[in-house]
């Protein structure tokens, strides 16, 4: 069986019936998300819990989703797990209908065609937007040694032995002069 890697929601039953809606709880496998800054891997499928509703001129998809992702620490580059739980609220209009694009401003209306709506891009965008500015495997991550590249969380290196505070050297010289 070929596993789907798109979060496609079936709207065949509701798309021609204004007011019709259904609730869906389902898990979807997702491919890693590649951005300019990082790559997001999925430890678990994305669990979607949404309402899919025909609101007359558009289809509304609202609810939450959660997953456990894996991402590289900004300091030590090790991959670490991060639980994600976010809200999703998107409005889709049918490109097949000339007058379907809603007039109201202030919302991003997303075009769709056919009998299903692929919300994968919106889920991916929401996950990337939810990532904290500082991606740390733990608050006190020691990072990599800037000289030898050793991961200081798991190993010690000899480099910092030679690191000397220049002020201390000056102080030492002064003290020695006094003697
Ligand atoms: Zn780290
Ligand atoms: Zn080192």
Give structural attributes:
two-stranded antiparallel ribbon, binds zinc ion, seven-stranded mixed beta sheet, 179 residues, single chain
Shape: elongated
Mean pLDDT: 87
List the uncertain runs: none
Which hetero compounds are present in the coordinates? zinc ion
Query: How much is the radius of gyration in Å?
Result: 26 Å
Binned, the helix content reads 10-25%
DSSP strand content: 35-45%
Give the number of DSSP strands. Answer: 9
Q: How large is the count of helical segments?
A: 2
User: Structural class of the helices, strands and pairings?
Assistant: mainly beta
Reading the helices and strands in chain order gives EEEEEEEEEHH
* Largest β sheet strand count, sense and barrel closure: 7 strands, mixed
